[in-house]
Amino acid sequence: ETGVTQTPRHLVMGMTNKKSLKCEQHLGHNAMYWYKQSAKKPLELMFVYNFKEQTENNSVPSRFSPECPNSSHLFLHLHTLQPEDSALYLCASSQDPIRQSGGVFGPGTRLTVT
Amino acid sequence: GESVGLHLPTLSVQEGDNSIINCAYSNSASDYFIWYKQESGKGPQFIIDIRSNMDKRQGQRVTVLLNKTVKHLSLQIAATQPGDSAVYFCAENNAGGTSYGKLTFGQGTILTVHP
Fold first, then answer.
1. Which residues of B touch A45 (CB under 8 A)?
2. SS3 string of chain A?
3. CB B44 to CB A43 under 8 A?
4. Separation of alpha carbons A50 and A111, rounded Å
């Protein structure tokens, strides 16, 4: 256990479904992140939240909608996804939002869009 | 055409040997670098970091070397063990004077350690 948990660990959804990924960190960090890891590209940053405020949206399509109700929880709401969105979605947290030093990743949610 | 996956570089070593994993980074303005290890079924795990005002940093069994002239980063693992088998990623960060930095990851190298 790294201190960052993600649920569910595996998710299969159709293109018309709506689902949400959840991330929780127990480390007292102030910054949280969503990353996408696919077989076709290097690990990609999607969103950054610092003290619950979104500070980065790395040109992510609107079918991905993040939510950060507090510094310990982060959600990624999914709707009308495409098969190419199938990937491992990783959540991370860090105390330092600038360097992301000491950043800790969760185990990821393996998403398959059918 | 059909998309293909990343073809990651691979490194195979014998247990007890030293391993060197290399990474070329792209942004000459990057001022902070991190090495991560990712085992199968897990998220990336922080190994060691280095700032651009240094050219070498040592941890437990690991050493990171930074050559800013040629934008090259390497991770040296001493006395490699089977548990070191994983994918290793380098990441660069350029806060660029902004309030929030953004890590850019390399494609990764697969390290396989044979007993």
1. 102-104
2. CCCEEEECCEEEECCCCEEEEEEEECCCCCEEEEEEECCCCCCEEEEEEECCEEEEECCCCCCEEEEEEECCEEEEEEECCCHHHCEEEEEEEECCCCCCCCCEECCCEEEEEC
3. yes
4. 25
User: How many CB pairs below 8 Å do chains A and B form together?
Assistant: 70
What's the Cα-to-Cα distance from B24 to each of A9, A16, A35, B27, B103, rounded to whole Å?
Answer: 32, 41, 21, 10, 15
Would you call A39 and B45 a contact, using CB atoms and an 8 Å cutoff? Answer: no
Distance CA(B97)–CA(B89), nearest Å, equals 25
Considering only CB atoms, A39 lies closest to which of B6, B43, B105, namely B6
Residue that has been written with the tokens 């000459």 in this structure: B28
pLDDT, one tens digit per residue, over A41-100 is 889 989 989 887 877 777 899 999 999 999 899 999 999 999 999 999 999 999 877 666
